[in-house]
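Quick one: structure for this chain?
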Amino acid sequence: MGHWSWRIGVSRLVCAAVTVWTLDKGLVEGRVGESAAYEVWHGDFLVGELWDLSVDQPWFLCRFVPGVGWSELSPLFAAQEEARRQHFPEQLIGAIAAVRDLDVELRPVAGGEPIRPWMIYLTEGRASFRY
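Got it. Here's what it folds into:
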């Protein structure tokens, strides 16, 4: 049993390293994929694009390229990121609710049904979401 546990732990570590390497490689070399995977919309405003999608269950990880609507919403996402950085202290919980209440929509560039994530983090360069 211990042997299998060790192998699973190593496997998860390798997957995490590959995911981080892929995201960092994309940030250094520019746009890795041929097109964005999703567009991030808030109402009629394009907030940005999500590129180079990978999975680290339960999170989807990608690179965020800001769009026209980013400047208006970036302070809300910055406050949410600060709450996460401080391990969600009670006085900053409102920042998480403010982002959740935005009701952003992820529209697949290749077509298909939009996704409404129940949690999304956006910073210049990186993004993660769950739906």
